[in-house]
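ARCHIVE CARD
CATEGORY: sequence design from structure
SOURCE FIELD: tokenized fold
FIELD CONTENT:
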């Protein structure tokens, strides 16, 4: 029984379908055939990029998916060569990371993945059911869930050999565990007080050339950021990002004024005479939250948790879907080597996946002076080195490519510390800060 049919839930169902005779996905939304933003995933209205490692895992789980997306008209190109990146206000030299990025919107990607999952004969979708609680049996084992039909109000109990919670950031597993006497998992939080505000446009002039997207990334020197991909239907999506309460406005004038302050001037130039296709919508993200299930002393058998329900990362680093994919991949490997994994062993394994990404994103957030949190020597050194690396990448395509292989979770962060790379980074002139 998979709770939640977002990206984490779909990938989990795909993996479980190899080992279980029947897998059900329960969600309060209608899912099958839906390719637009839906109520249960309001963040899907905003720019979503799947990191390179996530693209690789999806292709392994659904062979041919990449080509299917390209055939559907979704723009694709090299992650370091065909995406225009600005860090600390400066444009990075395009490189070749040898990693393809297919620039699908979140609803498009989810719809294609969901269609593939729906083809599996032993997976079914229980749509428009709210999940109200867990059912436990002998020895405290989780034996199912209590649900309620949103259409008919009918309550039911569904039995399961295994329940996986992938209901996202709002997961109620901590509260359910407390009710069952296990206590709540400890939480790590990094308060970023971030907001995305997104609007779609039809442009009169093409600012992209051969690029798929223009992305001035928020950095301590330029804390306002944006993602500006071109979409399959020829329109453009502009997601503005503002941290520490500097939220991009939703009124059209305020939205334009915010866009004018971005490090990439071509974005404002492109939208000022463009046709807006909708009103700006906003999504507030107060903090990155990591639930430390791996540190709990006891945990009921028959229950696992993954995806945003375990860790919801600052979205500007684009890690969430890929980490969910890596966690599902971990579950797959564990199932291939035996029966249903012990929950604590599973949480210890996925903690390694989460650690790697959390170190990158939470560490980078602590580079912003206003973000609260302990700055260890390692964090300060890491951020100082990354600023030098981004400066070197302004003129050095090899550095750009190496950075995106690490940011894409394909290569480990140590790849940026190899002697040859350090020589390139530390030997490069330090450009003056952009105004
Ligand atoms: C603004 C923003 C931008 C982002 N950009 C990126 C990006 O560029 N790249 C990236 O990889 N990630 C990005 N993310 C993160 C990404 O969206 C999540 O990591 C990803 O969706 C993981 O999803 P999940 O399946 O764990 O949860 P979700 O996608 O949140 O899905 C949870 C599902 O559970 C269902 N559900 C919840 N509660 C109940 C209930 N009680 N009963 C029934 N059903 C329920 C919901 O309907 C939903 O379908 C972004 C997030 C935000 C907020």
């Amino acid at each position: 029984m998979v709770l939640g049919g977002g990206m984490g839930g779909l990938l989990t169902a795909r993996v479980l379908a190899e080992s279980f005779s029947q897998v059900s996905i329960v969600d309060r939304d209608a899912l099958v055939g839906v390719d637009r933003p839906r109520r249960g995933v309001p963040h899907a209205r905003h720019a979503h990029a799947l990191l390179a490692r996530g693209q690789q895992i999806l292709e392994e789980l659904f062979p041919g998916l990449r080509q299917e997306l390209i055939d559907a008209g979704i723009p694709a190109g090299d992650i370091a060569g065909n995406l225009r990146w600005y860090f600390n206000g400066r444009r990075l030299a395009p490189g070749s990371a040898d990693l393809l990025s297919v620039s699908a919107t979140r609803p498009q990607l989810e719809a294609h993945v969901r269609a593939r999952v729906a083809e599996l004969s032993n997976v079914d979708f229980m749509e428009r059911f709210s999940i109200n609680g867990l059912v436990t049996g002998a020895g405290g084992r989780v034996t199912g869930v209590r649900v309620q039909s949103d259409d008919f109000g009918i309550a039911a109990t569904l039995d399961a050999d295994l329940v996986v919670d992938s209901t996202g950031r709002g997961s109620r597993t901590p509260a359910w565990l407390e009710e069952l006497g296990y206590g709540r998992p400890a939480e790590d939080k990094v308060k970023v007080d971030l907001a995305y505000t997104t609007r779609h446009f039809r442009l009169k002039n093409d600012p992209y050339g051969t690029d798929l997207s223009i992305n001035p990334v928020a950095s301590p020197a330029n804390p306002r950021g944006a993602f500006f991909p071109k979409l399959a239907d020829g329109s453009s999506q502009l997601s503005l990002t503002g941290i520490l309460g500097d939220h991009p406005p939703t009124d059209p004038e305020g939205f334009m004024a915010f866009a004018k302050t971005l490090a990439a001037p071509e974005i404002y130039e492109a939208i000022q005479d463009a046709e807006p296709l909708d009103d700006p919508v906003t999504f507030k993200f107060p903090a990155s939250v990591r639930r430390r299930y791996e540190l709990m002393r006891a945990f009921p058998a028959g229950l696992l948790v993954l995806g945003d329900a375990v860790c919801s990362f600052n979205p500007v680093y684009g890690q969430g879907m890929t980490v969910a994919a890596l966690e599902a991949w971990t579950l797959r490997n564990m199932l291939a080597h035996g029966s249903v994994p012990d929950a604590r062993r599973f949480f210890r394994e996925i903690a390694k996946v989460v650690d790697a990404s959390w170190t990158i994103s939470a560490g980078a957030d602590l580079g912003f002076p206003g973000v609260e949190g302990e700055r260890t020597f390692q964090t300060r050194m890491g951020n100082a080195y990354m600023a030098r690396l981004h400066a070197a990448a302004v003129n050095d395509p090899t550095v750009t490519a190496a950075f995106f292989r690490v940011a894409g979770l394909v290569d480990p962060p140590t790849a940026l510390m190899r002697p040859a790379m350090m020589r390139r980074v530390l030997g490069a002139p330090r450009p003056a800060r952009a105004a």
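CARD ANNOTATION: Residues 343-365 form the longest helix (23 residues). The radius of gyration is 22 Å.
SHELF: design records, drawer C
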